[in-house]
Amino acid sequence: MVVYARIAACHPDVAGGAGQEKNKFIHWLRSNGFMVVTKDGAPAEEGHYKANVDVMMAIDALELSIEMRPDVVILVTGDADFAYLAIKLRRHGIRVEVASVAANLGNILRSARTM
Fold first, then answer.
1. Beta strands 35-43 and 95-98, pairing class
2. pLDDT tens profile 35-86
3. Under a CB-based contact definition with an 8 Å cutoff, are residues 5 and 18 in contact?
4. Do residues 3 and 37 lie in contact, with contact meaning Cβ atoms separated by under 8 Å?
């Protein structure tokens, strides 16, 4: 399993508790066999940061799926930006499931998954 994590470079929380907790979680994931891909973020709105990992995730998912030919890919996101990825995977005969909180699941992604 691959986990993508945004790292808030230059964000005040990194030096505090939130950054330390995220680093502990990333260490736990790696220690338990997960492949963790991190990307430094940049400050955005007040108290937030942006790392734009969506493109990285989509390219890696498509590339790995074509190489490994899994029966099922589970997207753990509700972001409708991943609908095109779901469609491309389905075109390659891969079942696509989505794990998301219902309130965060975009209608386009809902339609793009395998029923």
1. unpaired
2. 888 877 777 776 666 667 788 889 988 898 889 999 999 888 888 989 999 9
3. no
4. yes
